[in-house]
Amino acid sequence: MRRRDLISLIGAAAAWPLVARAQPALPVIGYFSGRSPDAEAPLRVPFLKALEAAGFAPGRNVAIEYLFSDGRYERLPSLAVELVRRPVALLVATDHPSAVAAHAATKTIPIVFGSGFDPVQIGLVASLSRPGGNATGVSVFTSELGSKRLGLLREMLPGPGTIAFVVHPKNMSTPAQIQEIRAAAQAVGQDLFIVEIGAEGEVERAFAAIAERNVVAILYGAGVFFQVISAQLVALAARYRIPALYEWREFVTAGGLMSYSTDRNEVGREAGAYAARILKGEKPADLPVVQSSRFELVINLKTAKALGLMVPPTLLARADEVIE
User: Which of 5, 15, 292 has the alpha carbon at shortest distance from 138?
Assistant: First the structure.
């Protein structure tokens, strides 16, 4: 054997153990959201718990890459494309703007979504029972709860007066939300003042306009953007001494008056369970969209007292959580 061939053979043999020891790349979940990291926590924590309960531990047998748009919807399409290019084995999009962006970015990579807008109407799935494509997830009743929230707010404040309905104009469900609230208000003779907040810099001006109209209460429309600026919204409601009903319980634990929403623990848990099933080989097309089934009314008695409000006993009796 020639010396050159012998050296090559020895070199190849030395490399064999290294090849044998090489670890396969972990599957990567691309998790992205229109919220900020802090605002996403109520969904992300139960998602991770469900994923781990199904046998997937981040860093051990799965990797997760996070991207957040911090309430800026216009960034979501580019974030989705960035994750698709990395590439990832699965996309998780926990609000309907990010779900729409994910669906536009890929028709092959599996998508698990959480959508507060009808996923059939916005084209994410063919039907709830038979999604039929690369996406499935959880349908969350948020934008459809406006009339229920209006009724709860009127029960808290039975006297006359105008209620401000605050919406984010860049949210695709806003026109439908306004239509629903106007119909519900007209049915009970409730005066409404529609207020748009499109950016963080518009919040102070919006509250000044609300104060000028002598509004007796604020009802917030559904939207990721308001979750990102929740601390500012709660603080201004306290400064102007205006009762407000919010979308999620996190506003109330931060000092807001009340909220009515679906249970986000359930949403995160279901999304995590579906992500695990897809990583194990199931197809989104075969997994029916889960519809959120639990709702929670949360009331902050300390805030009610600060506002000089007496919470009706009938309302307290129906509350799922009372913060004192």
Answer: 292
Per-residue pLDDT of 145-158, as tens digits, reads 888 999 999 999 98
| CA gap 185, 246 in Å, rounded | 17
DSSP conformational letter for 143: G
CB-CB neighbours of 31 under 10 Å: 26
**Tens of pLDDT, residues 4-37:** 444 444 344 444 444 434 455 899 999 999 999 9
Angle in degrees, CA 221, 226, 229, rounded to 5: 155
pTM of this structure: 0.86
Count other C-beta atoms under 10 Å from residue 211's C-beta.
Answer: 15
Q: At what angle do helices 96-105 and 76-85 cross, to 10 degrees?
A: 50
Domains annotated on the chain, with CATH = 28-141+263-294 (3.40.50.2300), 143-262+296-323 (3.40.50.2300)
Token pair, residue 22, equals: 């090489």
Provide the b/e sequence for 58-73 (b: ≥16 CB within 10 Å).
Answer: eeeebebeebbbbbbb
Tokens 């054997």 belong to residue:
1
Strand, coil or helix: what is 119? coil
CA distance 188 to 186: 5
